[in-house]
Amino acid sequence: MPEPSTADTALPQGSDVDVVDLLLTQHARIEEQFLLVVGASGAKRQEAFDDLVRMLAVHEAAEEEVIHPLSRTIADGADGIVDDRLAEERQAKEMLTALLDADVDSKGFEASLLMLRTAVLTHARHEERYEFTQLRAKVPSERLRALASVVRAAEAAAPTRPHPGVESATANLLTGPALAAIDRIRDLVREAARKAAS
Ligand SMILES: [Fe+2]
Ligand SMILES: [Fe+2]
After folding, report:
1. How many domains does the chain have?
2. What is the 66 CA–ligand 1 centroid distance (Å)?
3. Who's near 51: CB < 8 A, 6+ residues apart?
4. Residue 12 belongs to a domain
5. Is residue 13 part of a domain?
6. Close Cβ partners of 175 (under 8 Å, ≥ 6 residues apart)
7. Which of 4, 30, 62, 95 could serve as 154's disulfide partner, Cβ 3.0–4.6 Å?
8. Is there a domain that residue 179 lies in?
């Protein structure tokens, strides 16, 4: 069996699953995907990295569309907390952008990838500690459950790379320049999130 290049941690299903459950699962999946990139080489590493780029684009766009705006409404000092998270997201995106054209087997790639991993995982821990706990404490649970549909819609709008032989519009758009592909994913996710939230 060849090593998979995509973390396949399934999103939890069921009517009692809320948006925080899904975002926590995505955090775990992103963490796993970094390991898959580091553990691979050549074309496999490129595939795993492309999947990581897509996962991060979907996840951060869904948070920026739904979670951070909601967080701003629930606590004193929340604006500062959210501004700090957005700054972390911007910084991670810059680090990621710098990696897009790199040779995935170069020494520089691995060093930069590990720095990105630290930034992304630290950012995720901050969200879990400062935002997710507040959301669970202060937002009615039925609202949090309803918002799960936004994350599901975001995933559906930009699915991970299809298995060989499966063609899709998304697969086609991902063959373009990587940065344009990220921006396109974010647009798709925003659109899907808005529809699901309205
Ligand atoms: Fe985030
Ligand atoms: Fe996150």
Report:
1. 1
2. 11
3. 5, 6, 7, 33, 160, 161
4. no
5. no
6. 181
7. 62
8. yes
Distance 60 CA to ligand 1 centre (A): 5
Residue 3: the pLDDT is: 60
**Is position 115 within any domain?**
yes
How remote is the CA of residue 64 from the centroid of ligand 1, in Å? 7
For residue 160, which amino acid is it?
T
Ligand located closest to 68 CA: 1
- In one-letter notation, the amino acid at residue 1 is M
Q: Give tens-digit pLDDT for 123-162.
A: 999 999 999 999 999 999 999 999 998 888 888 877 555 5
C-alpha dist (Å) from residue 153 to 86, 127, 137, 148, 198: 22, 21, 25, 9, 12
Residues of the chain with pLDDT > 90, as a percent, come to 54
CA distance 198 to 194: 6
189 CA → ligand 2 middle, Å: 15
Q: Each residue of 42-90: pLDDT tens digit?
A: 999 999 998 999 899 889 988 998 899 999 998 778 899 999 999 999 9
